[in-house]
UniProtKB/TrEMBL annotation:
GO terms for molecular function: copper ion binding. InterPro entries: CtaG/Cox11_dom_sf, Cyt_c_oxidase_assmbl_CtaG. This is Cytochrome c oxidase assembly protein CtaG. It is a single-pass type II membrane protein. Keywords: Copper, Membrane, Signal-anchor, Transmembrane, Transmembrane helix. Exerts its effect at some terminal stage of cytochrome c oxidase synthesis, probably by being involved in the insertion of the copper B into subunit I.
Length: 212
């Protein structure tokens, strides 16, 4: 008993009872059960993340369905500029039957690294006896790779005028975008040259008008 007449054993008694309850078999079973529930929750959380790649693999291997990749997956699949990745660029060219020109690439293929600028040339010759103006229409195959082929300089940007028997080497400068899908290893650049009747008529009319 303290000086105010209270018994001092009350708190000690409550503390002893509390400790006994915490250390009792029932309390231990409750704590063990809570621990197991926490482990189950963590396992379910981790499994939910694992389901995404497993589902993608199942769709691709079993059903032949390729799921669209997320932004992070797509970026991981694209090699950065300056890496050891190489892409083959093939060159092709032809003329419409109404255009009396010779036209062809000066090289058939070129090995390029995405992100770097390259140059190639095409040869054109007017085999007729008059001025001819032609316009080139480019195309890139495969179609899904065309948006990754960027021409920085091209004779196709403007009409080309060749006098009788005149020939010309026409440059093309281009960059393959590093974002080109990794499974696209070859691009084909083709040109089809067409006769520009309006500009051809104007060029020949101007020549005759200038003649004495």
């Amino acid at each position: 008993m303290d000086r105010r007449g209270h018994r001092g054993g009350g708190l000690r008694g409550l503390h002893a009872v509390g400790c006994a309850e915490v250390n009792s078999p029932a309390a231990k079973r409750r704590n063990h059960g809570l621990g197991r529930m926490l482990l189950v929750a963590l396992a379910a959380f981790a499994f939910s993340f694992a389901l995404v790649p497993l589902y993608r693999i199942a769709c691709e291997k079993v059903f032949g369905v390729r799921l669209a990749q997320g932004a992070s997956d797509a970026q991981a699949a694209v090699p950065a500029a300056g890496t050891s990745r190489w892409v083959t660029v093939q060159f092709d060219g032809g003329v419409n039957s109404a255009l009396p020109w010779e036209f062809h690439p000066n090289q058939a293929t070129l090995q390029v690294q995405p992100g770097k600028q390259y140059e190639t040339t095409y040869h054109a010759k007017n085999t007729s006896g008059r001025i001819i103006v032609g316009s080139a229409v480019p195309s890139v195959a495969p179609a899904r790779g065309s948006k990754y082929f960027n021409k920085t300089e091209c004779f196709c940007f403007t009409a080309q005028e060749l006098g009788p028997g005149e020939s010309r080497e026409m440059p093309v400068r281009f960059i393959v975008d590093p974002a080109l899908p990794a499974d696209v290893k070859t691009l084909t650049l083709s040109y089809a040259f067409y006769r520009n009747d309006t500009l051809t008529a104007q060029a020949n009319a101007g020549k005759h008008a200038a003649a004495p």
